[in-house]
Every structure is written in C-alpha cells, then in structure tokens.
Amino acid sequence: MQTILGAGGDIGTSLAKELKNYTEKIRLVSRNPQKVNDNDELFVCNLLNSEQVKLATKDSEIVYLAVGLPYDIAVWEKQWPIIMKNVIEACVASQSRLVFLDNVYAYAKTEIPNMTEHSQIAPTTRKGKVRAQLLEMLNKAQREKSLKILVGRSADFYGPNAKNGFLNILIHDNFKKSKSAFWQSDANKIHNFTYTLDAAKALAILGNTDDAYGQVWHLPTSNEALTGKDFVNIFAEEMNVKPKYMRLSPLLLTIIGWFSKDIEELKEMQYQNNQNYVFDSSKFNKAFNFSPTNYHEGIREIVKSSASKI
Question: Is the pLDDT score of 263 beyond 80?
Fold first, then answer.
C-alpha cells in the first residue's frame, strides 16, 4: 500500500497516476478524496486529528506528504507543526517510509540565485521559519526514531491544472480573461519553475528507490535561463494574444495588500522575485537519467489542457 496525504492537490492527482507503475494498492487521503485510478482506496481524513492520520496510514509501505495548506501564515504556523507531528507518529507506528514534498522557503535569501541540495537553511521570513521547523522535526525523527525519510524539494510549480501555480494564475488565467498578465517584482530576473507532471513522476521514482532515503532531492526542473518577460511572451505566443503585463512592484503589492489578504501574503517572499531564482536539479537528473520538460512544452500543455475544457 502506498498512501498520498493531500490527494487531489497540484501534485497529488498526478502522483496517484504515476504510482500505478509501482503498485496496485494506492490510498488517497484528504477531506474529500476523489478517485484517480479505478481501484484507488479513498480515506476521508483531517490531518489535524492524530487518530485519523494513524488510520489513514495503517499498513502503508510508503506515505507521501503532499498537502497544501491555504497561503496564510497564521494557518501555517498553527497547523503545519501539528500535521507533521501527526504524520511522523503515524509513520513510526505503521513502520512506513515518508516522502515529504517541500519548497525552497527555508533557504537563506542569499542562496536563491544558486539553489542546490546543499544550500543553507537560514530563513528570515515567517513562512520560511515554518518550513525550517518541519525539516527539523523530520531530521529529529530520523535520528531518534529511525524513521526512513526523504525530502523532494520543488521550485515554484506550473503545469496543467496547477491551481496554485505562479505562471498559471498570474499569466495564463489573466490572458484567458483578456486581461494583462502580472509579474512579481522584477520581470528581468531569471526564474526557474518545476513542471507538476515531472515533480509527480520524480516523487514516485524516489519513493520507490531504497537508496534515495536519508537525502534531500531537488525535483527535476528545466535549467533554461528565462526571465519573467520571456514567460509572458511564450504564453502570449501560445495563446495568440498580445504580451501585455503589469509589474507588481513592492509598493504596488503593499497598496493592494491593504485590500487583499492573498496579496498581503506575497510581500514577505519578494526576495525570491527581485533577484535571479535558479534551482539546480542536476543531482536527480544524473541519478535517474531524467530530462526535465522544457518551458515551451510545459506552457503548451497548460494552454492545451485549458482549451480542452471549454
């Protein structure tokens, strides 16, 4: 049995499809799980409830923690430590291996232009400090409880059906509504993005590779050095629209943030957008002979997927 906690999210659905290459027994866990494969086992669970989490992970060989909480620091600070504690205890009880889908928020600001698995964990933002706390909880469980853990770390997401994807929301969705696209802070800086289908495939590979445990892995991400302007232009070309965009400067984010909680939440993370953001996944690519999806192809798939729903 392989279990996905956070099924149905940007990665969970694709991960369920990929796991069919490794097992016929897949359990999808969320507040409202929906089948991806015909024989998926569904389990309704509140991850804040420790007993429910233990039942959700029972008899699981591998557990994938791919949950996405609302982008609200108050929610993160309150709920993430509880969820991680419950998941660790459940995996220890069921003797499951744990695969954690992580982001780059815990890295030091100075690491963003050249992120590798060895980059310094030294966050200065509240969101980053939450992520660092989770990593310490995992490391402690690995040291003291012999829990087998691996961390699959991703850059910002993009891809078909990526509801929370940076490129999806700020560019594609606005162009689709005949509006100008948005870009945060500096559209002249390089920014790498992880394609959701690549991330899902990589998590399935890692979870089912014994030697991958006890390590941090950057999930496969194209190393093409594209800027915000480049991404706007590619989407515009694929969607046959003019490449119009508005830059969300720090001042504009502050003003809009007075009226929008979602925008307010973006402000502390702008250090990731006002400098080059380069995410090195060469460790995974070399280990598994993997070629990440290039941006033109990934964007084409987003547009194609969206058009098929009209």
Answer: no
pLDDT digits (tens, 9 = 90+) for 183-215: 999 999 999 999 999 999 999 999 999 999 999
CATH class of 158-192+223-278+294-307: alpha beta
DSSP string, 154-204: --EEESTT-TT-HHIIIIIHHHHTT--EEEES-TTSBB-EEEHHHHHHHHH
Please tell me which residue, 250 or 147, carries the higher pLDDT value: 147
* Domain edges within the chain: 2-156+194-218, 158-192+223-278+294-307
At residue 294's C-alpha, the angle toward residues 291 and 299, to 5°, is 140
Distance CA 28, CA 34 (A): 8
* CATH superfamily of domain region 2-156+194-218: NAD(P)-binding Rossmann-like Domain (3.40.50.720)
Quote the CA–CA distance of 245 and 171 in Å, as a whole number. 8
Tokens of 274: 């006002």
Q: What distance, in Å, lies between the first and last C-alpha atoms of the chain? A: 37
What is the β-pairing status of strands 181-184 and 245-248? parallel
**Span 68-95, pLDDT tens digits:** 999 899 999 999 999 999 999 999 999 9
- Which helix (H) or strand (E) segment holds residue 30: the answer is strand 26-30
Contact assessment for residue 155 and residue 102, using Cβ atoms and an 8 Å cutoff = no
Hey, do 2-156+194-218 and 158-192+223-278+294-307 end up sharing a CATH topology, with the first three levels equal? no
pTM above 0.85, yes or no: yes
